Amino acid sequence: MARKLGSRSEKTRPLVRAAALRLFARDGYAAVPMRQIAADVGVQAGALYRYTPDKQSLLFELMHVHMEELLAAWREVMPDGSPLDRLDAFVRFHIHHHMDRAEVVFISYMELRNLTPENFMVIEGMRAEYEKVLEDILAECGVDTDDKLTTLAVLAMLTGVNTWYREGGLLGRTAIAERYVGMVRCLVKA
Amino acid sequence: MARKLGSRSEKTRPLVRAAALRLFARDGYAAVPMRQIAADVGVQAGALYRYTPDKQSLLFELMHVHMEELLAAWREVMPDGSPLDRLDAFVRFHIHHHMDRAEVVFISYMELRNLTPENFMVIEGMRAEYEKVLEDILAECGVDTDDKLTTLAVLAMLTGVNTWYREGGLLGRTAIAERYVGMVRCLVKA
DNA sequence: GTCTATAGACAGATAGAC
DNA sequence: GTCTATCTGTCTATAGAC
């Protein structure tokens, strides 16, 4: 099979994204120079601008793709059962998805303020859409969602797993998810 | 009454701290130039170095004072009652303290990675000490604290209030605290 | 598509006048 | 104690050779 022209460029592009992801997560967007991303990829800084118009777009693209994948993945696994079943499913989905993508999740919470106002509005809209998924499920479960306190408390608790979960820890992935399922069920009953 | 010599310097110092607090919270440590802090205070950039050896010390001092005050304030109000009473008291204390100091709390979570390794270890130690306060109370309430999941889940839920609470919102401070008290009680029973 | 070289802006921190 | 002026280094992004 003949290679397409320009296929070489499509080898570097994902490396740039991966390096930006890793370094932004580790050191923070503002603290990572383009030169360091380039060094991580194994090219000179100027070459990066073949793949991104600027540093800001690199950040925005990582967060935008993440939010699109998050919303799409939920639509994919979203079950039809009872409200409580759907709540359990949401908790398991959220925990597993966030454990699998620790770096981009971390960036998406930490680097919001380094987005331009236009880019921020896009991401904020998608974040609100995801929050609405949980809010609707909670409402169907009989929770009062006039104020967002319960929704935000549950979301904060679930997302907190991102700050401490590391692969190979004391608890397995499924065990962790089931513990959170139990805690959220308990909050809903109260 | 005669003014003490040097009393004028002690007027600018708190202004520098206040400006750094406000700007670090709004734009992030890395994005705030010393010149902007100076402009906020109403002096030239060079004058700031009468009050701090460098920018890093400005950040560290804000976080360090915050953690000292947090630990001291808890020791002050810590009650003697039953474990469940002490848990309620901790929840109320945490929520109110975090609502009253939104900016420095936000900085303390967001800017950890902009501390030098030495400074990070100091703050991290104090953060662990605070976490231990909650862990001990939960253990006395009969919660299994062999793994830290419950402790961290409760702390994440409580601290989440910082991301959405604004003065003059739908719910009053006390009402919010009592809702969290109810949710935490429920998690402990399960 | 990657390189070298550099433009142009701006950072943290210091020196010395007043 | 604050000023002006500046040193020294680093940043993003671009230009043009190969």
The quaternary organization reads as homodimer
Ends distance of chain A: 62 Å
Q: In the CATH hierarchy, what is the architecture of the largest domain in chain A at level 2? A: Orthogonal Bundle
Shape of chain A: elongated
Number of helix segments of chain A?
9
Number of domains of chain A: 2
- Approximate strand percentage of chain A: under 5%
Total number of β-strand segments of chain A?
Answer: 0
Q: Which segments of chain A are poorly predicted (pLDDT under 50) over 5 or more consecutive residues?
A: 1-6
Rg value of chain A: 19 Å
Largest sheet of chain A: none
**Content-based structural category of chain A:** mainly alpha
Indicate the mean pLDDT of chain A: 94
Most extensive interface, residues per chain?
Answer: A-B, 33 and 32 residues
CATH superfamily of the largest domain in chain A: Tetracycline Repressor, domain 2
What percent of residues of chain A adopt helix (DSSP H or I)? over 70%
Here the CATH topology of the largest domain in chain A equals Tetracycline Repressor, domain 2
Question: Which CATH class of the largest domain in chain A?
Answer: Mainly Alpha
Order of helices and strands of chain A: HHHHHHHHH
Explain this structure.
The structure is a homodimer of 190-residue chains. By secondary structure, chain A is mostly helical. The first copy, chain A, folds into two domains: 8-52, Arc Repressor Mutant, subunit A, CATH 1.10.10; 54-189, Tetracycline Repressor, domain 2. Chain A has nine helices and no strands. Chain A has helices spanning 9-27, 34-41, 55-77, 83-100, 102-110, 117-140, 149-159, 161-164, 173-189. The longest helix of chain A has 24 residues, at 117-140. Chain A is elongated. The interface between A and B is medium-sized, with 33 and 32 residues. Chain A binds a DNA duplex (18 and 18 nucleotides) through residues 6, 8-9, 12, 33-35, 43-47, 49-50, 54-55.
